[in-house]
Amino acid sequence: MIRVTRSAVIDAPIERVWAILRDFNSHNAWHPVVAESHIENGEASDQVGCVRNFTLKDGNHIREQLLALSDQDYVSTYCILDATLPMRRYVATVRLKRVTDGDRTFWHWESTFDVPRGREKEFADLVGKGVYEGGFEGLRAFLRRPRAAGPRPASNAGSMQTSGVVATSFGGPDVLQTRTLDARAPGPGEVRLRHTAIGVNYIDVYVRKGLYRMIEPPAPIGMEAAGVVQDVGDGVAHLLPGDRVAYAAPPPGAYVGVRTMAADQLVVLPDHVDDETAAATMLKGMTAEYLLHRTRPIRAGDTVLVHAAAGGVGLLLCQWAKALGARVIGTVSSEEKARLARSRGCDAPIVTKDYRFAQQVRQVSGGRGVDVIYDGLGRAAAAENLEALAFTGHWISYGQASGPLDPVPAETLSAKSITMTRPVLFHYTAERATLNQIAGRMFEALRQGTITVDLRHRYPLGAAAEAHRALEARQTTGPIVLLP
């Protein structure tokens, strides 16, 4: 049995270090040898018994289980369940202690395990140097990551005035008016951030019209933005002033220059994702991730139909589905949009302005129909969707740009053994562990070039009404951002 131990002092408060390490799935954010990681079965990443399933950058694959976690003693213990590396009976413990001569943390990491005879030194060095010492340096670098320059208010600073766009009543774009608002100091579990870019999405139109009663006017709308943390409230350990962050989460309120909100829905941006890209892709990119990987996981050889294939979500769905091995059919409203969709992986764009597409879909698919429909259109496309689906096809209704769906009778679905879902992103991201998984996979897809963002539409924050008019008139391709 091999025993490996390493220790280090980290120049950060123990609460800050522990907030990172207690998250059993955080290692893909800071450890230099981890490529991708997720918690199996959607369990919380601090739940004893959860299993993290990850790959290393050298291609090896490991599954580890959290055996014990003590917030009082700052200790966690875990083991390897299986691995492509020849390591058996691996059990490791991470233990933190507060350094008394400064706001620093002592980190002790130890493990015992077996390997094939003759390879003891090889694996002792691999674990001790590559995993433990590499992990110490990785976390130090993570904690030192660049922060935005500029003044940072103290955590006890009072209310700050900011400009924002509010819906003065429910209605058309004209109800969006600029107002001076107050951004209060953050309370426990909250942060105040200065927005640098704000995403515009069709859900903002639904909220503005009152189709989704998520505000009571007058109130700001918007669900997605990127920015810089200004100050943090009590109990917030995973964020610091100066962190570059982004979010896509309720309640509405993103159309403002400065905002105070719950910290648990914010994710730290990696260096390779700029603020405008983040604001343009958080909601749309995470929507594409859960639709393709969770609601009905795409399999190589599937044929899928993406409505509004040249829109913000549609372009991401086309690229990602194509990368996963699907054949992609899309609907668009013009030849220009068809060319754009084709350049992003749509094999067969169908130009239609009257929501008629089923006959062409069946022709393109050899009469079979499609396995999955990604429908952000709603009512106007419903009858054609049913016609375009193959037997046992899946209709995913994630939006309603043309109006809400009428009830679909069960016997209508059973005629082809069709399944139908009406998923909501925010149900998938309600748990922070899953939010991190979804955002992490989306950021990695951006880094690898699996998905790319062509940001063509930027408006000043005060021109939000103009942005809404263009969106509803189908005059835009890809994402829209507002700049405070």
Please characterize this protein's 3D structure.
- With 484 residues, the chain is α+β, with helices and mostly antiparallel strands.
- The protein has 13 helices and 23 strands.
- The chain has three domains: 2-143, 2-Layer Sandwich (Alpha-D-Glucose-1,6-Bisphosphate, Chain A, domain 4); 160-281 and 457-483, Alpha-Beta Complex (Quinone Oxidoreductase, Chain A, domain 1), CATH 3.90.180.10; 300-422, Rossmann fold.
- The chain is 28% helix and 32% strand.
- The strands form four sheets. It has a seven-stranded antiparallel sheet. Strands 10, 12, 13, 14, 15, 22 and 23 form a seven-stranded mixed sheet that branches.
- Strand 22, helix 13 (464-472) and strand 23 form a beta-alpha-beta unit.
- The model is unreliable at 150-156 (pLDDT under 50).
- The dominant shape is globular
Write down the CATH topology of the largest domain: Quinone Oxidoreductase, Chain A, domain 1
Pairing-aware structural class of the strands and helices? Answer: alpha+beta
Binned, the helix content reads 25-40%
The H-level CATH homologous superfamily of the largest domain, spelled out, is Medium-chain alcohol dehydrogenases, catalytic domain
Number of structural units classed as domains: 3
Count of individual beta strands? 23
Largest sheet: 7 strands, antiparallel
Radius of gyration from the CA trace? Answer: 24 Å
How much of the sequence lies in strands comes to: 25-35%
- CATH top level of the largest domain is Alpha Beta
Number of helices: 13
Q: Return residue spans where pLDDT drops below 50 for at least 5 consecutive residues.
A: 150-156
Return the CATH architecture of the largest domain. Answer: Alpha-Beta Complex
